[in-house]
Structure to design on (233 residues):
């Protein structure tokens, strides 16, 4: 797998859009931006996935077959699903936008849209959901800048694979909390990823080696925690 500096976000997303071309375009753009992406083409499939999988955010079209987007969103919220939802709508009336917010949407983009706007709005939603006001995360000498798509250690850029970057950024978003291997797999990788894989340990080992600093701690029997080493600035 080729290496590059970094992707913009390391989260697992769901795209629910019935237009096959737009569905593919959205998924491709999000994957290129570093997200793990699952797709659905109708409301029933989208509702099922959103109700059974731990997505960090959802891109949801309102005009869906089988079950419309507002009904999908309302059902998720009634079931206690709290992931941020960005709705896509071709509807011009302000009342449709109000209905979307009342149903539990966190933001919306009107069609036609620029893909960069979708990416920017998703970054903002994920930042707010994680309780962060800025696009920069630091742990000791390690710095992750999601807006500039860079990871540096003591000011020097570090090249990471997509899996390594997703892992680091997820730990950054949950800094100071123990994160289990199961949680990492569920939130960072697509639905067809091998859930019984032990490759997380391999990713952690490679990431530690590339960072060259002691910030990823193993908590025996529980998982990993990102925390600066004692005396680190």
């Amino acid at each position: 797998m080729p290496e590059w500096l970094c992707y913009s976000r390391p989260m697992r997303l769901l795209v629910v859009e019935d237009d096959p071309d737009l569905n593919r375009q959205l998924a491709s753009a999000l994957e290129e931006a570093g997200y793990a992406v699952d797709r659905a083409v109708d409301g029933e499939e989208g509702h099922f996935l959103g109700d059974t999988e731990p997505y960090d955010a959802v891109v949801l079209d309102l005009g869906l077959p089988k079950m419309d987007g507002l009904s999908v969103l309302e059902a998720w919220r009634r079931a206690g699903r709290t992931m941020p939802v960005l709705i896509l709508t071709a509807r011009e009336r302000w009342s449709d936008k109000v209905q979307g917010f009342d149903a539990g949407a966190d933001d919306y983009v009107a069609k036609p849209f620029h893909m960069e706007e979708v990416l920017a709005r998703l970054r903002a939603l994920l930042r707010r959901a994680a309780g962060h006001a800025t696009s920069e995360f630091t742990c000791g000498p390690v710095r992750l800048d999601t807006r500039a798509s860079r990871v540096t250690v003591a000011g020097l850029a570090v090249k990471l694979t997509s899996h390594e970057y997703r892992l680091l950024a997820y730990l950054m978003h949950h800094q100071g909390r123990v994160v289990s291997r199961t949680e990492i797999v569920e939130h960072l990788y697509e639905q067809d990823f091998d859930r019984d894989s032990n490759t997380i340990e391999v990713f952690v080992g490679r990431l530690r080696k590339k960072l060259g600093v002691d910030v990823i701690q193993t908590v025996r029997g529980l998982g990993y925690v990102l925390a600066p080493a004692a005396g680190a600035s």
About this structure: The chain has eight helices and eleven strands. The longest strand covers residues 12-16. The radius of gyration is 18 Å.
